[in-house]
């Protein structure tokens, strides 16, 4: 369930020159220093009866599982607003169903609960830095991917001893990740069991790094980018990615029609510039590179 290597490294700086298009209105989010993004909302939509799309469109609401503590991707502000690239991807999909952003219900979904909330029907989809892999695909269907990340390490700015995953075992560094995440399993190749510290959210890992309880935090580079961005210069990324992490939209297992709808929605967003603008208004604030939408996987 990995995307091609050609797409794995596909990031480009060229802008999509097309203007945002939409059949209807939208809800504008003020994301940072005057940067806004408006999720287009379609009008007069119609879907085949009995499909997930028809059910959600008729209900005029959708429940989305995402993270509340991931700067730049999925974060709930003190004011209760949802921000981040995952949030905007969810709004783009909801908009194609004719659902206004204000009618989306957000469900906090840490890494270790993602399959569970989908299977139990607590959410209609999960957009939560959710890496597509074969194990997870046995329980849920993945649309996308909508972004290609890579696992890396975050350390204190003055740390020169940790230079990549291969340096961890010799340095005896404590490394933090979260329960149920792909990075927490991958890092086991490079550390002894006694070196690994697991929490339920990455914000606790950042706190542990700040207080010296651990010497490194590992997860996908874009998540680390958000934590570095909020650290006021205290943290840095080692910048030696050692995996490919395609982020997908998790939905109920076997819902092929909904999967194809999501893929088509993402492809349209990439063509008309919506995808790029969503990135620039969120994760793009801390990254000079604008990603290209990866090729979609086969829905199954």
UniProtKB/TrEMBL annotation:
GO BP terms in the entry: amino acid transport
Signal peptide: 1-24
GO cellular component terms, A-Z: extracellular region; outer membrane-bounded periplasmic space
CDD domains: PBP2_GluB (cd13690)
Superkingdom in the source lineage: Bacteria
InterPro entries associated with the record: Bact_solute-bind_prot3 (IPR051455), Solute-binding_3/MltF_N (IPR001638)
Pfam families, sorted: SBP_bac_3
Record key words, sorted: Signal, Transport
Tagged with keyword Signal: yes
Domain Solute-binding protein family 3/N-terminal: residue ranges: 61-286
Family, per entry: Belongs to the bacterial solute-binding protein 3 family.
Name of this chain's protein: Glutamate transport system substrate-binding protein
Provenance organism: Halosaccharopolyspora lacisalsi
């Amino acid at each position: 369930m990995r995307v091609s290597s050609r797409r794995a490294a596909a990031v480009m700086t060229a802008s999509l020159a097309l203007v945002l298009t939409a059949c209807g209105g939208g809800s504008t989010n003020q994301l940072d220093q005057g940067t806004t993004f408006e999720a287009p909302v379609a009008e007069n939509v119609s879907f085949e009866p009995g499909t997930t799309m028809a059910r959600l469109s008729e209900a005029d609401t959708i429940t989305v599982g995402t993270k509340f503590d991931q700067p730049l991707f999925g974060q709930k502000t003190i004011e209760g607003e949802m921000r981040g690239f995952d949030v905007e991807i969810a709004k783009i999909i909801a908009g194609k169903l004719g659902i206004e952003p204000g009618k989306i219900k957000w469900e906090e979904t840490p890494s270790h609960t993602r399959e569970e909330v989908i299977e139990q029907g607590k959410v209609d989809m999960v957009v939560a830095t959710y890496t597509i892999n074969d194990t997870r695909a046995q329980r849920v269907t993945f649309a996308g991917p909508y972004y290609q990340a890579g696992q890396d390490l975050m350390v204190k700015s003055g740390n020169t001893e940790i230079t990549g995953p291969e340096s961890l075992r010799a340095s005896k560094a404590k490394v933090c990740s979260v329960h149920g995440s792909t990075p927490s399993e991958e890092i086991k190749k490079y550390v002894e069991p006694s070196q690994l510290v697991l929490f339920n959210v990455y914000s606790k890992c950042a706190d542990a790094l700040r207080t010296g309880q651990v010497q490194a935090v590992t997860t996908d580079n874009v998540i680390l980018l958000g934590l570095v961005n909020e650290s006021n210069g205290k943290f840095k990324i080692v910048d030696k990615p050692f995996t490919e992490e395609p982020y997908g939209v998790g939905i109920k297992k076997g819902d092929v029609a909904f999967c194809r709808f999501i893929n088509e929605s993402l492809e349209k967003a990439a063509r008309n510039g919506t995808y790029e603008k969503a990135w620039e208004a969120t994760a793009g604030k801390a990254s000079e590179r604008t990603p290209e939408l990866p090729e979609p996987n086969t829905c199954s």
